[in-house]
Design a protein that fits this description.
The protein is of the alpha/beta class and 970 residues long. It has 27 helices and 41 strands.
């Protein structure tokens, strides 16, 4: 909305305060500033508020607003007087206002930093979390305008409003004065207020998904009069699934005398349906969608699945049409799956929803599947069906203009019917939020992701989201840090999902291999080594082994304390007549399940070659009953075998796996049998590499889960080497009063001064524009010295001759200076400097940069070819913990060089970890530091030396993840 001429010309309408939010019940609403055009809306809103609520707001009977009141409540300067409204369908349902006051409570302007705040919520919308959302947004607005505290007067009987303030998590003080409760809230965000905000966000977004997946009634808009067509197909699929709710067919072209279609009530519009409709599936041409959405909104429909195409996948006009679709739906409080969606499925017996183009409802199971591609969704449904896997829910979101994978992570986090979340993603609309949600969800159940469009540098057609500039390898590392199991193909995703959904998590990487084929056992052994597992020599049962031999061998392997997992290999038996017998798969499956069910809880996978019926028989679970408490559960051995021997030493201390009698962070899919172990499905694979890769992912995820149980800490650095306040002042000075939005690089001396404020010492480099200056610099620093060029094309390029080391005296320095300028160019081009020699060590590089979408990222690698040519660089999100720093150093492939490779003395990795943490702290404390590169960092056996540093400052990018809750708007 635009301001009118009556409003202050000095403070334009702040459209960045507008936001769509999800309320506690899963519906949406819009928050926006109040303008002078809202007088009639305000009066209408006030008339619908009860006398009791009016009394609580004004402390006296106040039946109607006067003209003066209306003027006051609709005229704001957006600085000292601000009003926000919550709207649904364009009408007010709640308002909030603050007025800046001085220490005596009188109207004031800046620099006064306190404001009086008051709320009013329509009675029909109380209890939906409206006031809590408004408080978050008005507090953010106040902070932006320099207000640090809110004061509020509340009647003691107004318990709901007192609770809103009390539960917000802000630091507050309360007193009782003159018959009212006086509240003062410090608006600076706290750990508690952020936790409260994110908990509310999770509950609201999870509820919004639940409303889509478990509707009590569904209307299919666009059902054709004749068989065929998208709408008629969806209706048939919905009926064929046995949907437990009410179903309606809608088409504006239906004859007036048509009562039913496919046996369900037929209507010419949603408005004609005489009962509430929870979900509408829209299958009409794109130009007719706005009319259908308006009808749904007016009828009170809660959510939409838009199958219609013709949106952002069609170019700029389609993108604008998609934005308008989202705006229109949200204005009515509805959320959208799609557009260009394939549909949604919920296999729960209490719902049985197939609002999709899939002809059959998948088997019920405990895998949740989200995909941004209809074609990939079809392939995944088919693949899971062939392998005997069941789903709890399936969502193919198409252009995912509104509801996204983040929303379903919120839902699956607490969904007791889902044990494993599989996601095929082609774009990440909010990478910061994704990694945060994925980390929380992965702590209780596995999250397996395939990321498409990894190397295109752009989003796929239809995905109107910000493009992240960070490389795919960095995205993968950040996902791993969050506990996400990142795989490369949808086949690998299904392979990993089947193992994680049907088997406990392994305690370590030690793998027993047994089977009736020596060759297949050796292939499996090699595959284990390639994936970083620790296989035991394969046990060959010979081709004469029968099902009983397999059972006994598996039981023995599971009971072995030196074994964390078992891979069984099987080929057909050869009969007495020399012919292969392939029909004994079911018998072998029974034998393997018997051993797995009675032995200690360890993961078992089967590799088979042409074993008829084996895969299908193994996929048949002993039970599909829900686990007793899936909220604190997930795959994993929660009452395992006697304690095994310690696993292989890890560079980073790992938390021990859960043991018998310990609290269980995860449970096993399937109903536990009398021994407390899983009686779930044993996954079967047609190739050793696929089974081993799935098991390796389970091993890495289990290690992450153990470590996540005792997360690292961000050190405080309580010494005087970090000066946050003075650093902020220095940055402000360096940026200047009117900083360039593109930022500016710091000079060498400026970078040294800034880094020194955080305890990072950069070795001085003195300019040497001529030989005499070089000699004078060396005399000042002391021999031996290094002579370097600092020209951008030669920096850090010792291979091009731009660096001369260990110059022990003046003659060596002059000779090197002459050689350098004769070989590479004039001093003006080379910009040579002289630097004191550092102790010998390993050359490394430390970087930190801010990506607009992903946030601040800390990176580490060895300097030169390992990181630049081979891409051997590790990454972690900022702020990094002590554990992150330790893992960062150890996760590069060249890490052995730092730990005494080939008999060399180990480098001082403790000093290196401290440096990483200081750089992380710097960019976290000061978002204006958008880029830091320390190269080279020479790590000696004791201590390290930073020889080069470059820093770039810029106005800080917006941090949407720290602001009030809001839905993305692309």
């Amino acid at each position: 909305m635009e301001p009118t001429p009556e409003q202050s010309p000095h403070h334009a309408y702040p459209d960045h305060w507008e936001a769509d939010v999800v309320l506690r019940d899963g519906g949406t609403a819009r928050i926006r500033p109040i303008t002078t055009d809202d007088a009639e809306r305000l009066v209408s809103f006030y008339e619908q508020v009860s006398d009791e609520s009016k009394y609580y707001r004004f402390f006296a009977p106040y039946p109607r607003l006067s003209a003066r009141d209306v003027h006051r409540f609709t005229h704001h300067d957006y600085v000292d007087r601000v009003g926000l409204a919550v709207t649904i369908g364009g009408e007010f349902i709640a308002t909030v206002r603050y007025d800046r006051i001085d220490e005596r409570g009188r109207p004031a302007s800046a620099p006064a930093d306190e404001a009086e705040v008051a709320f009013l919520v329509q009675d029909a919308h109380q209890g939906r979390g409206v006031a809590s959302a408004l408080l978050e947004h008005i507090a953010a607005v106040a902070r932006e305008r320099g207000i640090r505290r809110f004061a509020a007067e509340v009647l003691p009987a107004n318990n709901k409003m007192i609770k809103v303030f009390r539960d917000a998590g802000f630091t507050q003080q309360r007193s009782f004065e003159d018959g009212s409760v006086h509240l003062t809230l410090d608006l600076e965000p706290t750990a508690e207020s952020l936790a409260v905000q994110r908990a509310r966000e999770q509950r609201a977004e999870a509820r919004s998904v639940q409303r889509l997946l478990a509707p009590g009634s569904v209307a299919v808009v666009g059902v054709g009069r004749a068989p065929g067509g998208v709408g008629r197909t969806v209706l048939r699929n919905l009926l064929g699934s046995g949907f437990t709710g009410r179903t309606y067919a809608v088409n504006t072209s239906f004859p007036e005398d048509l009562d039913t279609v496919e046996g369900v009530p037929a209507h010419r519009s949603v408005g004609e349906i005489g009962e509430p409709v929870d979900l509408a599936v829209v299958a009409v041409p794109a130009d007719r969608v706005p009319e259908a959405v308006a009808e749904c909104g007016e009828h009170g429909v809660q959510g939409l699945v838009v199958l219609s195409a013709g949106y952002a996948e069609r170019g700029a006009d389609g993108r604008e049409r998609q934005r308008e679709l989202v705006r229109q739906a949200r204005s009515y409080g509805m959320r959208i799956i799609g557009p260009n969606a394939f549909g949604i499925i919920n296999t729960s017996d209490t719902v049985r929803l197939n609002a999709s183009l899939a002809p059959e409802l998948p088997k019920a199971g405990r895998i949740g599947l989200f995909t941004q591609s209809g074609a990939i969704g079809i392939a995944l449904l088919s693949g899971l069906h062939r392998r005997g896997a069941g789903l709890s829910a399936f969502i193919s979101a198409g252009n995912r203009a509104d509801v996204s994978g983040n929303d379903f992570l919120q839902y699956w986090f607490e969904d007791q019917g889902t044990d494993v979340a599989l996601l095929y993603l082609e774009s990440l609309g909010n990478p910061r939020k994704f990694t945060r949600l994925a980390r929380r969800t992965a702590a209780v159940k596995p999250v397996v992701v395939v990321k498409g469009a990894r190397h295109s540098g752009a989003n796929p057609p239809g995905h109107a989201v910000p493009v992240s500039r960070i490389p795919d390898a960095t995205v993968s590392a950040l996902m791993r840090q969050a506990g996400v199991i990142r795989v490369d193909t949808v086949t690998e995703m299904v392979d990993a999902g089947l193992l994680l959904a049907g088997q406990p998590l392994p305690d370590g990487p030690r793998v027993a291999i047994l089977g009736n084929s020596e060759s297949l056992g050796l292939l499996t052994y090699d595959a284990c080594l390639a994936e970083g597992l620790r296989p035991r020599p394969p046990r060959d049962l010979t081709t004469a082994a029968g099902p009983g031999d397999f059972r006994d061998a598996l039981a023995e392997a599971l009971a072995d304390r030196k074994c964390d997992a078992v891979i069984v290999t099987a080929i057909p038996w050869v009969g007495e007549n020399g012919e292969a017998e392939t029909g004994d798969g079911e018998v072998l499956a029974d034998a393997l399940r018997e051993a797995a069910a009675t032995g200690p809880a360890k993961p078992v996978a089967v590799v088979h070659v042409e074993m008829g019926g084996l895969a299908q028989a193994l996929a048949a679970a002993a039970s599909t009953a829900a686990r007793p408490d899936a909220r604190t559960a997930g795959p994993g051995p929660l009452a395992p075998s006697p304690a095994p021997e310690p696993p292989a030493p890890s560079p980073v201390p790992a938390v021990s796996a859960p043991r018998s009698g310990d609290p269980a962070p995860a449970a096993t899919p399937g109903e536990p049998d009398v021994t407390g172990h899983s009686a779930g499905r044993i996954p079967a694979y047609p190739a050793a590499e696929r089974a081993v890769r799935a098991l390796a992912e389970a091993v890495k995820y289990a290690q992450w889960r153990r470590q996540a149980a005792a997360p690292g800490k961000v050190p405080e650095f309580l010494d005087d080497t970090i000066d946050e306040h003075r650093t902020a002042g220095l940055i402000e000075t360096l940026l200047g009063p009117d900083p360039d939005p593109r930022g500016r690089p710091l000079t060498h001396d400026e970078a040294r001064e800034l880094l020194a404020r955080y305890g990072v010492a950069v070795r001085s480099a003195l300019p040497a524009p001529d030989p005499e200056a070089a000699v004078a610099a060396a005399a000042e620093l002391g021999y031996p010295v290094a002579l370097k060029t600092t020209a951008p094309h030669l920096r850090h390029r010792a291979d091009l001759g731009g660096v001369r080391l260990d110059l022990a005296n003046e003659n060596a320095l002059r000779r090197s200076y002459a050689e350098l300028t004769d070989l590479l160019g004039s001093p003006a081009e080379l910009r040579p400097v002289v630097q004191a020699m550092a102790p010998r060590g390993v050359d490394t590089v430390v970087r930190a940069s801010i990506d607009a979408a992903a946030g601040a990222v800390l990176s580490f690698g060895l300097a030169g070819a390992p990181s630049e040519l081979l891409g051997d660089t590790a990454h972690r999100l900022v702020p990094a913990t002590d554990r992150d720093a330790a893992e960062l150093i150890r996760s590069i492939r060249a890490a052995p060089v730092l730990f005494g490779w080939r008999g060399a003395a180990p480098a001082d990795t403790a000093a290196l970890e401290e440096l990483l943490l200081r750089v992380s702290r710097l960019v976290d404390d000061h978002p204006e530091v958008v880029s830091v590169t320390l190269e080279p960092v020479v790590v000696a056996t004791q201590g390290l030396t930073v020889l080069g540093a470059s820093v770039r400052l810029a106005p800080p990018p917006a941090r949407g993840d720290l602001g009030p809750r809001r839905l993305p708007s692309y």
